[in-house]
Amino acid sequence: MEIARAWLGRPVACACGRTHEVPIAHVHVGPGAAATLSGWLAERGVQRILLVADANTYDVHGREVLAALEARGFAAGVHVFPQRHGLLPDEQAVAAVEAALADAAPDVAIAVGSGVINDTVRYASFRRGVPYVVAATAPSMDGYASSVAAMQFAGVKTTLPAHAPQAIFADPAVLAAAPWPLVQAGYGDLIGKAISLLDWKLSRTLFGEYFCPEAYRMVLAPMRYCAEHAAEIRARSETAVAALFAGLINSGIAMAMMGNSRPCSGSEHHCSHFWDLLAYRGERDHMAHGLQVGYATRWMMRFYRWTARWLQARTANGGRVTQVTLPPWTEAEDQAARSFYGAGAEEIIAAQREKRRWLADHPLPAEGVAADEILAALEPELSLFAAVEASLDAMDIPQDPRGLDLDARQLRLTFLRAYELRSRFTVFDFLVSQGLLAAAVDGVLAEA
Asked: Any idea which GO molecular function terms this record carries (predicted)?
């Protein structure tokens, strides 16, 4: 699985009619990544470097990176967080990295790690105006290429503007040796694209939402490959794990091309966000994001199968979808949201009002949309569902809600309300618009 290097570091005129510009200059996935990283920096005239890691990532890759830097004569400062568990991308971590940046005055920072280290260095280096590069240690997320940082300030998860790395380096041997829960999380994050792509295509078919075929293929191809090679990922094949990592990087590149996360985040992510909300309330334990997305993918495949059956029943009579309208969002809904969501309600209210404005600006064609046209648009992903399901089993992604510390009541609540969390149109919104959500939830839960 190849990295989509043709799109990196320069404006590219796309067949979709837009010009995409991905700010990352270089991605390398291969043996000897530490030496390649140091050589890449030397070619660019870098002199002073700050390496940031935690106790685990320093042991598994940081020492190797530091040795490669010192072999080339770099002046390299080092900041290693002592924690082996429980490090958060919070105010304290950011302050520590900013202080280290101020002391070292580097030309470049190197984030040696995965999620928390990358987000912390991304945000702190952005605030200090210092470029950074990544030495990845796990195929755990699609955020390596992101230009925003997922932080946790005042105990609340928030996404903040930052900057993308100048380059990403990864050694397949390091990736394949990553802790199994991190590999599972990355797999769940990637396989969830089976649903986010469906949500994107559903909206494109109904409303003509902007769609880039290149970004679509960039996400679909590695997702399909990994679904077909999950057993090899499970066996920690370096080739297969490197393909998983490449798929996660390509997903990040696709999001950078789009300027948003549309290709990679849909109703499966909305379920995960809702479960995060329940965890913040103390109603369940916090779980890894990618594991939640993988579990949510199981459920969203069921919702898409239910929706496909409903559409198939309409095709017999040449049926068309002639109206997609959400119920009005009134002051009463505002009050209900404030009662249920508490401090996060204003974001929910804004998302729902924005969604209705978007739908008003993107009406269906006057004649509606044929049910068989919708099914044809969804078929490529629907046909992958059996392979996706088998791959989730191969990767030990939980089937039982208790594996995610969820109960039947919480699942029902999730499926009835997750569509409220974001302004993006998904299959949940389609079911709401047809007056079918409650019936779909009942049907899906009864079949599970």
From this structure: metal ion binding; oxidoreductase activity, acting on CH-OH group of donors
- Give 183's DSSP letter: H
Rg (CA), the chain: 22
Q: What is the DSSP letter of 54?
A: E
∠ CA 198-201-202 to the nearest 5 degrees?
A: 85
Q: 118-129, pLDDT tens digit by residue? A: 999 999 999 999
Can you give the CATH number for the domain in which 202 is found? Answer: 1.20.1090.10
Range of the domain at 199: 183-324+364-447
**pTM (2 d.p.):** 0.93
Query: For residue range 237-263, what is the model confidence (pLDDT) as tens digits?
Result: 999 999 999 999 999 999 999 988 999
DSSP assignment of 392-443 equals HHHTT---SGGGGT--HHHHHHHHHHGGGG-SS--HHHHHHHTT-HHHHHHH
In a domain, 138, yes or no: yes
34 token code pair: 């530490």
Question: Considering its fold, how many domains does the chain have in total?
Answer: 2
State the Cα–Cα distance between residues 387 and 103, nearest whole angstrom. Answer: 51
- 3-class DSSP state of 2: coil
356: CB partners within 8 A, 6+ apart: 326, 328, 329
CA-based nearest residue to 193, from 223, 157, 214, 153? 223
DSSP character string of 6-51: GGBSSEEE-TTSSEEEB---EEEESTTHHHHHHHHHHHTT--EEEE
274 and 375 both lie in a single domain: yes
Q: Which of 214, 39, 24, 231 lies closest to 134, judged by CA? A: 24
Q: Tell me which residue has tokens 């999001």.
A: 255
Task: Check whether residue 92 and residue 196 sit in a common domain.
Answer: no
